[in-house]
Amino acid sequence: MTVVAAVVLFGSAAAVLRESGSEEGWRFAGIEGFGLVLSACCVIGAVGVIRLGWSLFRVTAGIASTVAWLDRGNREPSESRGHPAVKSLVESINSAFERYAGEAVESEQHLMDSQIRIQLAQRQQKNTEAIIYSMRDGVIVVDKYDKLLMANEAAGKLFGFDYKSATHKSITELVGSGYCDFVDFLTSSKKSKARATRREIEFSIPTGNPPRTPRGDIRGATARVFDCVVSCVFDDKDQICGAAAVLHDITREREVSQMKNDFVSHVSHELKTPLASITAYSEMLVDGEADDEETRSEFYSVIQNQAKRLNRLIDDILNVSRIESGLVKVSKEQASLTMLIEEQLQMIKSYAEEKNIEIIGQKPIVFDRVHVDKDMLSQVIVNLLSNAVKYTPAGGSVRIATEVDEIERLVRVTVSDTGVGIPEDEIEHVFEKFYRVGVNKKQAKGTGLGLNLVKQIVEKVHDGRVFVTSKVDEGSVFGFELPLATGEPAEVV
């Protein structure tokens, strides 16, 4: 449009000056006018139509005034150059060109600044999106109509939708009825216009890719707890235009907290029993209820046994705690499992003979050397053997065996008994802290830390593996695997 206007202007000026009949006018139209109009075309292209219209009006008025003067006086060409109307026309055009040239430069600078700001905004947006997409916590952003604006991969996995293609879809449609608590929380937070609201929400998360029901519920899922924070987004008029939700999985934190509570509860219970006995018998001694030496000796024995039990419990707790925290000092060296087992068998045989239980050892193995802390591994063997004897009725047997797997480069130790066995639904819990099989609690006393200590020593300290199989009234098989030694020097950790 600006080019057409410039051509019209040029044609009008040339026509008027041609009508004057002067050769000088033709030259003005053909050379000077062309140069000026060409410059005008370049400059006017950067300004608005309104400014151009106003300029055309002023220039056209000047041209009309000049034509009128030429027509009235039938002037000579030489006289037209000095006429005020012609001078005013030229000055007006020059002034307009200069003004618009300056404005064009200013507009170009503003355009460059705007482009830079747009590029910076786009880069900041990409950086923000990259941060959100890389977060391990689920992030969901919706508009005021609950349409999805943005979500990251963690949120897509949590709610089971494709976060890349789900934009502008209803959040209720995307998450399904299985997560109605989250949708209700999101909606209520927007209604309350709260800057930030926090709530713990429990979800049923699929362990694999279980099918969904027609209503969107998930089958075969496990419960997980999320700390959900919803923040409302406000526009310039302080009106809600959307909301952003961040979901942090705190299931593990909750489990750890529960484990701490259970630990304190179990420790308190286990400490209370021997302390109660020690307190009771010592009070009876102080009160003089033991009149004869035999009674006093009996009281002394009870106090001593309970004190030893208390000491063993504290040692087990400290050992487990040190291993779990990595503060225990480990001194590893090469040792023969056969020799370690033989040493512990001699210690446990007297206890087994008291219960009339047969202990069956093993034949020596050519190469069963392992890289271990001898004291810790001896404790593992003693715990397994004493447990087997403890839960085996009189007349039963306990067998310990060692097997070397040259292909896998490991040695396997098993301790089998003919004891009371463990119910199938409790087998997976026997290595937990303070866990004792319910039906076997009357069979023998214990703290429930022995097998957990075995697991910690074998798996955390020696990179091995523990295992167990059992049948009720038939017996149990406890065992562990360790890598064979490869000839490295002794190691102190």
Mean pLDDT: 76
Order of helices and strands: HHHHHEEHHHEEEHHEHEEHEEHEEE
Number of domains: 4
**Helix content class:** 40-55%
What topology, given as strand order, has the largest sheet? Answer: 2-1-5-4-3
Approximately what portion of the residues adopt beta-strand conformation?
Answer: 15-25%
User: Termini separation (Å)?
Assistant: 85 Å
User: What is the rounded Rg?
Assistant: 47 Å
Number of helices: 13
Largest β-sheet summary: 5 strands, antiparallel
**What's the CATH C level of the largest domain?**
Alpha Beta
Number of strands: 13
What is the CATH superfamily classification of the largest domain?
Histidine kinase-like ATPase, C-terminal domain
Helix-and-strand structural type: alpha+beta
C-alpha geometry: elongated
TL;DR of this structure?
The chain is α+β, with helices and mostly antiparallel strands and 493 residues long.
Outline the structure in words.
This protein has 493 residues and is an alpha+beta fold. It folds into four domains: 2-111; 136-249, 2-Layer Sandwich (Beta-Lactamase); 254-325, Signal transduction histidine kinase, dimerisation/phosphotransfer (DHp) domain (Helix Hairpins, Orthogonal Bundle), CATH 1.10.287.130; 331-492, Histidine kinase-like ATPase, C-terminal domain (Heat Shock Protein 90), CATH 3.30.565.10. The protein has helices spanning 2-19, 23-44, 49-73, 77-80, 84-134, 153-159, 171-175, 180-192, 251-286, 293-325, 337-354, 374-390, 450-461, and strands at 138-143, 148-151, 197-206, 221-234, 240-249, 331-336, 358-360, 369-372, 397-405, 410-417, 465-471, 475-483, 491-492. It has a five-stranded antiparallel beta sheet with strand order 2-1-5-4-3, with helices on both faces. The longest helix has 51 residues, at 84-134. The protein is elongated and about 140 Å long. 25% of the residues are buried. The model is unreliable at 1-47, 209-218 and 488-493 (pLDDT under 50).
